[in-house]
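RECORD TYPE: inverse folding
INPUT: structure tokens
STRUCTURE:
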């Protein structure tokens, strides 16, 4: 459970079958090869686990953003998350601010930043920290746009001039 800004407590995962429900949700997410999937909110890790089980996840990089270190600590206390944490396709960013997210985005391989990222929301986390996640999503949109402009358009223009 996590308390949101209004004092309401929200469950971090389903009380019934969190992995099955996360698998159902993950099955609706289209993962593009050689792209980035931004996961807004860690919760108890079930959604990330379900996404990583997908066949298309093999060529996808996962950028997980969780602003509340206590949520991650609690998930670690309740579940064995060693496989998620050690997965080379997963970049966990726990307790980060927006300035750090800008640096994280710019540090990703340019080829991956060229494609629009797939964004998946852990609903309870996003509800608890709505302002942060809204700002993070806007930042990612700006950074993705900037990347496509700087890396995508300039080389095409430059290449056309180099053949003259």
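DESIGNED SEQUENCE:
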């Amino acid at each position: 459970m996590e308390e949101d800004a209004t004092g309401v407590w929200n469950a971090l995962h389903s009380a019934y079958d969190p992995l099955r429900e996360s698998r159902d949700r993950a099955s609706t997410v289209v993962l593009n090869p050689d792209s980035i999937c931004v996961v807004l909110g860690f919760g108890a890790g079930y959604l990330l686990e379900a996404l990583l089980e997908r066949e298309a996840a093999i060529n996808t990089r996962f950028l997980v953003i969780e602003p509340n270190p206590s949520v991650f600590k609690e998930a670690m206390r309740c579940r064995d998350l060693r496989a998620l944490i050690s997965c080379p396709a997963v970049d966990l960013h726990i307790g980060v601010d927006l300035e750090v997210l800008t640096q994280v985005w710019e540090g990703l391989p340019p080829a991956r930043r060229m494609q629009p990222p797939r964004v998946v929301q852990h609903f309870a986390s996003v509800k608890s920290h709505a302002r942060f996640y809204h700002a993070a999503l806007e930042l990612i949109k700006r950074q993705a746009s900037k990347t496509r402009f700087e890396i995508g358009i300039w080389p095409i223009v430059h290449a056309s001039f180099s053949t003259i």
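NOTES: Residues 2-162 form a domain with the Rossmann fold fold (CATH 3.40.50).
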